[in-house]
Amino acid sequence: MSVYQFKAEKINGNEVSLSEYEGKVLLIVNTASKCGFTSQLEGLQGLYNTYQQQGLEILGFPCNQFNSQDPGSNEEIEEFCQLNYGVTFPMFSKVDVKGKSAHPLFTYLTDEAKGLLTKQIKWNFTKFLVDKNGEVMDRFAPQTKPEELEKAIQEALKQ
């Protein structure tokens, strides 16, 4: 099994198969526009600017499950991310990342890379690094800054 078996709706409403990203290193992140970690969007965009040409794709999935920190519409979220952080990496429609209504992709990700005390995502900006074969390599906590992932991304790109 791999992330390539899943489909997701882009923020513009078009459904895509994650198989479109086959052969790329993926960093999948549950984002939020009104979170203490929202400024990480800038660091994520920096990683994208640096490593996209080498095969990195960052996939942002807005989520409103943690203190309602992403209450806006998909259009509002997209505009916020672009205007405030210059986000050009792919953003997807708002999803749930935990519980019975969790998007199947996040159920898979959390099964493959359990957290410290629980497999459930505990907050916004949990990050999953996926290798070029679509297999989950690692999971990073919300407080892990994007810049701290650079070495892991470089290693994944070499494989």
TrEMBL record:
The keyword Oxidoreductase applies. Transmembrane segments: none annotated. InterPro entries: Glutathione_peroxidase, GPX_AS, GPX_CS, Thioredoxin-like_sf, Thioredoxin_domain. GO terms for molecular function: peroxidase activity. Keywords: Oxidoreductase, Peroxidase. CDD domains: GSH_Peroxidase. Residues 1-158 form the Thioredoxin domain. PROSITE patterns: GLUTATHIONE_PEROXID_1, GLUTATHIONE_PEROXID_2, GLUTATHIONE_PEROXID_3, THIOREDOXIN_2. Gene3D superfamilies: Glutaredoxin. Belongs to the glutathione peroxidase family. This is Glutathione peroxidase. It comes from Oceanobacillus kapialis.
